[in-house]
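Re: that backbone. Tokens:
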């Protein structure tokens, strides 16, 4: 009876360093307050969904809609009790973006401060990455 010997080599592997990941989307206190106010008026909805659509001079524009449930491929951001969902198509586009709510004498709107944007159109409605 012969026995075969199996040889194994073990190599040391350096430990992987954990790095902080960038938040998919952060909301300013002003945006949190506005989303809370909007959702109080729609008690059957659980949050807002942020997405991008092909539109405008530069290619993409943001859209917001109320949602009653989380989509299968949506990423969920919970901040200060507010739930915002990011559609799959917009997840890489919005990475590291800050969502703000701005009011002045003539208008009020959500503003996205996106570090990934390479260019915008003159009217500010669309962007490209």
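Recovered sequence:
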């Amino acid at each position: 009876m012969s026995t075969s010997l199996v040889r194994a080599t073990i190599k040391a592997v350096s430990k992987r360093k954990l790095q902080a990941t960038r938040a998919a989307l952060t909301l300013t206190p002003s945006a949190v307050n506005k989303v809370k106010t909007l959702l109080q008026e729609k008690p059957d909805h659980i949050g807002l969904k942020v997405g991008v659509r092909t539109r405008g001079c530069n290619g993409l524009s943001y859209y917001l809609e109320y949602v009653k449930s989380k989509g299968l491929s949506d990423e969920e951001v919970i901040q200060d009790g507010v739930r915002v969902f990011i559609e799959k198509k917009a997840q890489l586009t919005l990475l590291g973006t800050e969502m703000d709510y701005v009011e002045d004498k003539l208008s009020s709107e959500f503003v996205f401060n996106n570090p990934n944007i390479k260019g915008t159109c003159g009217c500010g409605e669309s962007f490209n990455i």
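The radius of gyration is 22 Å. DSSP finds one helix and nine strands in the chain.
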